[in-house]
Design a protein that fits this description.
Number of strands: 0
Order of helices and strands: HHHHHHHHHHH
Number of helices: 11
Radius of gyration: 20 Å
Largest sheet: none
Structural class: mainly alpha
Strand content: under 5%
Shape: globular
Oligomer: single chain
Number of domains: 1
């Protein structure tokens, strides 16, 4: 699957082909479906074994992490089907704003490890053959799978978004936008975990969102937390771009 996406990247070399092909986007969709299915399977096994549905929120968080990829895919469709003009520009700009709002949901999944740190697994009736430590390790692997898949799909969406904006707005604006997105992603994760704010609060309850943001900026730990996550997003995105740029050696 990744080889097919890399192959499409190598094939798209001209300015008009800066936007990923429909085949690339479809491959990413299949990849997302496989990842989601695997994660939900792990969750289903846990619920079946222990009878405790506490971790079902991971499924919702993973679906939210998929929204940026869906948004970016929608922008690809707009660029490849609509003629250049105000309508296409306006729709792509709206898509970029929606992508920016929902992108922090992808790395946010890593903060769900807090439930393991708070010994959530103790709330489950442990099977005798599995033991408390066995439940703990299962929860670590399961939470890690959700976090990895969600973040990886978020990074894919960032790559697609960058190519969309490169084509629509130019390389300079695209780089500035992605830089801002990386910085805001770290702060967005902080707002989600500590201020308990959601992506849609910026649209549905803007006053609440502004107040929560200003309150968070007054918290000293917000800077450290946000910069840490922003660095993590930048590091992992750089690794993804580097992996995509690798070329197979000549035979």
């Amino acid at each position: 699957m990744i080889d097919r996406i890399k192959g499409d990247i190598r094939a798209e070399s001209g300015p008009a082909d800066a936007v990923p092909s429909f085949r690339s986007v479809l491959s990413m969709g299949v990849l997302a479906a496989l990842g989601i299915t695997g994660c939900l399977s792990l969750l289903a096994v846990r619920v079946a074994l222990l009878g405790n549905p506490f971790y079902t929120f991971l499924g919702m968080n993973l679906l939210l992490a998929c929204v940026p990829l869906g948004t970016a895919a929608g922008q690809v469709t707009l660029l490849r089907t609509l003629a250049p003009g105000p309508l296409r520009t306006g729709l792509v700009s709206a898509g970029a704003f929606a992508w920016l709002l929902f992108f922090p949901n992808a790395p946010y999944l890593f903060t769900d490890f807090i439930h393991i740190a708070e010994k959530t697994w103790i709330r489950s009736d442990t099977l005798q053959w599995l033991g408390t430590r066995g439940v703990l390790w299962y929860d670590i692997v399961m939470s890690g799978a959700f976090a990895f898949v969600g973040h990886f799909l978020g990074l894919l969406s960032m790559w697609v978004e960058g190519r969309v904006l490169d084509s629509a707005w130019g390389r300079g604006i695209e780089r500035a936008f992605l830089t801002a997105a990386v910085i805001l992603a770290g702060f967005g994760v902080y707002l989600g975990r500590f201020a308990r704010m959601n992506s849609w609060d910026a649209v549905l309850t803007p006053v609440k969102a502004v107040r929560g943001t200003l309150a968070a900026l007054a918290d000293p730990k917000a800077v450290l937390f946000s910069l840490t996550f922003s660095f993590f997003v930048a590091l992992t995105y750089g690794m993804l771009v580097l992996a995509f740029s690798l070329r197979d050696p000549p035979k």
